[in-house]
Specification:
4-stranded antiparallel beta sheet, 5 domains, single chain, 9 strands
Length: 699
Amino acid sequence: MNERRGQAVAAVMAVASVALTAIGLLVQLRLPPDWQPGFPVSPDLGVGLAFAPVGAFLVAQRPRLSLAWLMCAGGLLGAGNVIGGALLLHTASRGDLDVAGVLRWLEVTCWAVAGLLLAIVLPLYSPTGRLPSRRWRPVVVAGVLATLAEIVVIVARPTPDPARYRLPAVIPNPLAIEALAPYYDQVVSALAYAIAVCVVAALLSLVLRLRGADPVTRRQIAWPLIAFAGYVVFYLSGPSMVVPASAWTAAIPIAILFSALRYRLYGIDTVISRTFVAAGLLAVVGGVYFGASGLAGLLASGYHQVAGVAAAVLSGAFFQPLRGALQRAIDRMLYGPVGDPAVLADRLTQEVRLAGPADALASVVAVVRDGLAVGGAAVEVTGGRPGYVARGDVGGSPRKIALVWHGEPVGRLLIGEPGPRRFAAAHDERVIATLLPHVADVAHAVRMASDLQRSRERILAAREEERRRLRRDLHDGLGQTLSAMAMTVNMARYSLTRSRSTADELLRDLHAGMDAVTGDIRRLVYGLRPPALDDLGLAGAVRALAEEAPPPAEVVVEGEASGLPAAVEVAAYRIVQEALTNVRRHARAERVSVTLSRDAELRVTVTDDGIGLPEDRRAGVGTSSMRERAAELGGSCVIAAAPGGGTTVEARFPLASPGEPPAPDDSAAGSTPAIPTGPAPDSPTDSATSASPDPAPGR
């Protein structure tokens, strides 16, 4: 209830401030010409129109924030100054000079107290609502005393000299102390100087806070610091800067709003950078232009066109180099020597060229850490070796950014706490956006190198296991059976002359043994290569897989699917088999499509409209085997979310061009695969892999 009451009070103050300011401006515009002020625009208009509404909005967001109430009070007092001055002149124009003298007290009081709250107290309490330390209390006390003294002196002002004012009549002061007349101007100047010192000290408090603050607080302080610094510059410049001062005054509460709410404190570095660059360009190019113009005018007297052309040419020649030099200087000041995202990207590219994937990953982490000036940075690579590379300490709660390569998550980038050097959050986002694709590329390269190494190891292990199995089956199974059959043949020969029935029974046993040998040989052959590929071809074998279990898959063949290398056919068949098994077990899909497309390469795509991939999925045996099969043949396999929902598995296999010799078929017995580019012999675990899909629920 108290918060709602406070919000209602703040809203009333905001409405009153805007209404009083608008009424005061209208009254000034309707004054008789002799009584109208020289220029109706003043900083008080910006105070009355902007501070109280923004303060009321802050009260609605953070009711206990003292800054918000300071803004509401200062804005209302600024509006009181506007309406008080307008009523003073209106009353005086109607002849009520004594009443106008009393209204002048109200105007002076509102003006002085508003200046105290907004120019001294508000900067001292920004952006947290508390003083930087107790040592700054004397500044507040000095500002209050100087303001009160100024109010008293102005209220007791002696009757001024009519020649100093352009008004039709002198407004009398009922409380005038004529004894102050010889000292009035000196006292007012001294008090104004004291107040100016307090204003500068309040700005200095923000500067000191900025130097000792953490990066987040620096970003929070930057907005009000720039806003108040601009106001102080206009304030000290005198009446000639009244128009820009009025516009700038209205922007101060917006800066405080950004600071107090910490609402995405991005972009302040861009504002500072472009402001300094624009100011430097304006100053230097203007100086060059006028200097060249004056010099050309002296050397070519009477030829003003020549002078103008020469000045323009010289200014244009200076413009671009000067802009680049100023931009580099400002970037170095804000971001340090390695802050330019383009420079960081070039450095990263050069270091990646000179190193392998694992060393390149360490270089990437170092560049990211230097570019962001953070305490530590690290990269986690899913399924890679090394799986984790760090520089510095990322802390207990680092910022985590997913690394995605062509739609496939390949790891995470971990960013530690910001260091003490910078406050530029917008620059950090630009650096991350520039470097993130490079980091994802290197993480993918590490992952592919790891997959390739694991594929080599599995190829060697599978080859040796296959040889061991073949040796065991041939020696213990087929060899023993053939030896027994040879003995049976000898026994049948001896039995032919003695007992034809015995020989006949031995021959029947021999026939059964030959059937067993035939089954063993067929089993060995089926383990080396799926028979459906020889019987139906790749397209027919895939169609047979698509019709095995619901949901049935639609098969589309683009191009000629025959005449492919044997190893490519086996790998494509096994990938489709694994993908369909995963769809039927995990996806809960209603539609599945398989596309075989052949041009310069063979593309195999399996798409479903199921539940898709979970966010925390991990690579299982099935998905790893699919990637490894493609990598063994120099191709790739990507598993990603489908655009319309579901999952897409896309495998690519490079094919030999017409001028190249065909890839060797290592599926034949006794062949030895070339590593890593040669196709691998089919592992005896193929059938086990297809029968046991990825155990991870998310595939």
